[in-house]
Amino acid sequence: MRTTHRLFALATAGVLGASLTACGSDSATTETDGGGPITVSATDTGCEVATTTVNAGTSVFAISNKGQKVTEFYVYAAGDRVMAEVENIAPGLSRNLHVELPAGTYETACKPGMIGKGIRGPLTVEGSAAPLTDDAALLAATESYQRYVKSQTAALLEKTTEFVQAVKDGKIDEAKALFPVARTYWERIEPVAEIFGDLDPRIDGREEVTEEGLTFGGFHRIEKDLWETKDISKSGPIADQLLTDVKEIVTKANAEKLSPLQLANGAKALLDEVASGKITGEEDRYSHTDLWDFNANIEGSKAAIASLRPVLEERDPELVKTLDTEFANVDTALSAHRSGDGWKLHTDLTEADLKTLSDAINALAEPISKVAAVVSGK
Amino acid sequence: MTPLSRRRALTLAGVGAAGLSLAADRGLIGKSDEIPFLGQYQAGIVTPAQDRLHFVALDVTTRDRDRLIKLLKDWTAAAARMTAGRDAGEIGAVAGIPEAPPDDTGEALGLPPAHLTITIGFGPALFDRFGLSAQRPAALEELPRFTGDTLDAALSGGDIAIQACADDPQVAVHAVRNLIRIGMGAVSVRWSQLGFGRTSSTSTGQATPRNLFGFKDGTRNLKAEETDALRDHLWVQPGDGPEWLTGGSYLVTRKIRMLIETWDRSSLTEQETIVGRYKGSGAPLGTSGEFDEVDFDSVGADGQPLLPATSHVRLAHPDTNSGARMLRRGYNFVDGSDGLGRLNAGLFFIAYQRDPRTAFIPVQRSLAARDEMNEYLRHVSSALFACPPGLSGPEDYWGRALFG
Quick one: fold of A7-129? Predict the structure, then answer.
């Protein structure tokens, strides 16, 4: 995982709310009466959601942070599965969150200070408003992507098992070689993994985002042991826990029903991962194997778009052409840094190399950010 | 849909609490804070200098001529909207569908046009591509190296320049940010600069401001009201070069770091001797009023000229540079501080002229060689651009005469 990015979970933060706040107090009530956003009044100690019952389909929450701390707002399904979230709501600001919810029981949560379990409340979703997947082409898209997820999770489990074994056997060189390979399968489907709350940070969290009281574990802890501390004699329990967590996430990911909108948002989220973490070398700061992850993110993004392709071809062929061109440009820019079966280290790239890659990612990410709207059919 | 102005969008968004935004709207009525985007000349040159600047130099990364032309059209449309106080895109920051990223970034919602002008220029290297070699004016050559230059290549040059000036920094930043976003995939940011506190007046209606040395700067600037002088010194005239640039102007930018800590420790007399003006009134040494003619000849009791031979005013004056004049439009900058705790501050020099070969280049040669002020200056960035004339109507676009 990167920092606290979980865009895959349908989150769409709007700025509409900001003007509502600026304009005064009564507007929110008026809009709720008219079927508009559900207001959420977040403070440092409270989380007042205007209603605890909504109809199935798309709901919009308008969250106002009236506290002193930066806050977040989540909609959780059973088992703390993130359905949607909006992050980094500064004191005094308002944000909107759009989420597509099938009938069922959920929980809402505000997280003042952005840590802990948050202030929870119940949310019941009634009825059975038709989801986008009614459209056969969209259904085919999600089924296609689900197959991709299945193939990647199988490989992830296999390679992580090998990696963990090498670590436990004290085989440093073998473990080092397996590290970027196992991560490739993770990075391709990372937005799916990010749906499952705490599992993602446990597996892929970096040292600075490890919450107080918790142990820094997962891939990056072992990376540090391998490359920086150069001592894996005590890494066994960490490696065992990593495999346990990976097994759990593989099971969950394979069982997860994804919506077409999640595919679209996931394709974009993967490019955000590249832009914010891989270009900068923050992701694999000890091993500098960021380009493996970079490439895997691009492949994952491409796979999600590929699943949606029939729908996009039908609705916006120009956009598909643009995406093809820009994906090809990214591949060209990246292929200059191939090294054997893998990739050059991040530290071997010049500033100019990174700028070229950054430009290519920006050029691709702008059109990809338009896919969700096309998929939603509006 | 019909494009909404930012003010209107805000009013619509604030259903049930429209009172406050209406009040803000009313506050704008009767205030002429919108500068016309169309006209014979580009806005942002003789326009009374606004208080804030966001300047960006971009490299063109696409090799597809049609894509570049489309970008110039898209930019022109966005610039027309934003200078009128509207959102960058046709839909706007908040009127779109929830699943799509807004086509305006939103930070200017509720803000007035704030005299926003957006001015474009083309750099020398652009002409080597896209089959434009024949259209490259002879005067559009990389500037020569001047004595003492300590230029950072990464902060210099560029294929396209965009100058956004406004009285509200957020409005200027909003304009540049949205244009950069529109350009992704076709252009890449090379360098950019924020500026505050205009350091020149470009109209007789404006008081002369001060630069970070604390001196009035730009007293003898070319001014919007000097029609004949503008023709002779500012606007490219028919026959000067390729026809597409007639009615345009050459833009020189220099980022000039000021070593202000050592400057601040120099005596008032030394400061005034270096500049050649009194610090309080701005009058040339030996005279009494800011706008008095510079007195080159008078000598003091010690037999030395009242205006030293190495003073900035004397060396930069048109009379010592074959009559060369420019329209200066620079801004102060403070880019935080450096590793030694010194303010990274100075002047982002901007000058428009009819021909740099008879204006900026000879004047800077003279200054670089002899100006006592150089002890306190470091030129770190340099660029030259050819700015096309203004846009004739809604169907016109930046660079049409060049690419058309």
Answer: Immunoglobulin-like (2.60.40)
ipTM score assigned to the predicted complex: 0.79
Closest-approach residue (CA) in chain B for A370 = B100
**In the predicted model, what is the mean pLDDT of chain B?**
91
CB contact under 8 A, A14 and B13: no
Cβ-based contacts of B186 with chain A (< 8 Å)? 363
Within 296-325 of B, beta carbons closer than 8 Å to A belong to: none
Question: B17–A24: do the CB atoms touch at under 8 Å?
Answer: yes
* Contact call for B94 and A15, based on CB within 8 A: yes
Q: How far is CA A1 from the centre of its chain?
A: 8
A9 has a pLDDT exceeding 70: no
Choose, out of B60, B99, B105, B180, the residue to mutate when testing the contact with A (most A CBs < 10 Å): B99
d(CA A304, CA A264): 7
User: Could you tell me which residues come within 8 angstroms of residue B20 by beta carbon, excluding any fewer than 6 positions away?
Assistant: A22, A23, A24, B14
DSSP A197: T
Residues of B in contact with A31 (CB under 8 A): 15-16
Residue B3: pLDDT above 70? no
Query: Is residue A1 pLDDT above 60, yes or no?
Result: no
Check if the beta carbon of residue B20 is closer than 8 Å to that of residue B370.
Answer: no
Structural class in CATH, domain A134-376: mainly alpha
